[in-house]
Write a structure and sequence with these properties.
Blueprint (H helix, E strand, L loop, with lengths): L2 H15 L19 H6 L23 H5 L6 E3 L2 E2 L2 H12 L5 H12 L8 E4 L4 H7 L3 H12 L1 H4 L8 E3 L11 H8 L3 E3 L7 E5 L2 E2 L3 H12 L4 E5 L2 E2 L6
Parallel strand pairs: 1-8, 2-9, 3-6, 6-8, 7-9
Antiparallel strand pairs: 4-5
The structure holds zinc ion (ZN) (2 copies).
């Protein structure tokens, strides 16, 4: 009997003994995950979106957004299968700010349900947080997500998890309070590269993409150091204010 089959039976047994409650509606979830099928179906898919930066686009759009058409960004591709809306925001908030680290598994499964992970990556690189924030929060959510993805996908499991390749050297005020222009200024020189990335095809991992300033800054840094291709893998994309 393979390990996968044993794990499956162990999970079925655990589900029947300890049924999970849905995080959103509080009803039994009927699976090993704390989200019922009904609530999972309510999560808004980020479709259609820009094939490069994953910006949500109006219905019947099938290509690139205006910004990516005019000036290709340093990030080669963004995989963000959901829109950052209140239901998903609640789950991510519980995970990040209420110390419910076990929700990493749920978020990894949601990501894998919405995306076919590219098989051409050389390494997974979680977006780092400053050590003071790490000390306060106790974990880097991007690292937890990367580890959860690796537990669930054997192809990803083979990739190195480059936790120390990048360092966030400067504490920054909460990015969500800043405008896009302030963020770009704030991020300048915030990251240092501590390992060679020449020729590597990198998957940056983060939870949510808001303006893309952080991921864009890191992608530029990695490309300047010779990285061949940089993608951002995140759970959700914040819709632009006009949609
Ligand atoms: Zn539910
Ligand atoms: Zn775009």
């Amino acid at each position: 009997m393979t390990r996968t089959v044993v794990n499956k039976w162990a999970r079925l047994l655990a589900d029947s003994l300890f049924p999970q409650q849905c995080l959103l509606c509080r009803l039994p979830s009927a699976s090993h995950l704390p989200l019922c099928g009904c609530c999972a179906a309510q999560l808004a898919p980020n479709q259609p979106c820009c094939q490069c930066c994953a910006l949500p686009l109006p219905p019947d759009s099938h290509s690139l957004c205006g910004a990516c058409t005019q000036c290709p960004p340093a990030l080669d591709r963004v995989l963000a299968p959901y829109l950052y809306e209140p239901c998903l925001g609640h789950i991510i908030g519980q995970w990040k700010f209420q110390r419910q680290q076990h929700l990493s598994s749920l978020l990894a499964e949601l990501w894998l349900a919405g995306v076919d992970p590219p098989q051409d990556r050389d390494l997974l690189l979680p977006v780092p947080i400053h050590w003071r924030r790490l000390l306060r929060r106790g974990f880097n959510q991007a690292t937890l997500l990367a580890m959860a993805l690796q537990r669930r996908d054997s192809a990803l499991q083979r990739l190195p998890l480059a936790e120390r390749t990048l360092r966030r050297q400067r504490a920054a005020p909460a990015q969500s309070t800043l405008t896009a222009e302030q963020r770009a200024h704030n991020l300048r020189d915030a990251f240092t590269l501590r390992a060679p990335v020449q020729g590597r095809r990198i998957a940056l991992i983060d939870d949510v993409m808001t303006t893309g300033a952080t991921a864009g800054t890191i992608a530029r840094l990695l490309k300047d150091a010779g990285a061949a291709d940089v993608q951002l893998w995140c759970i959700a994309r914040t819709p632009p204010p006009t949609t």
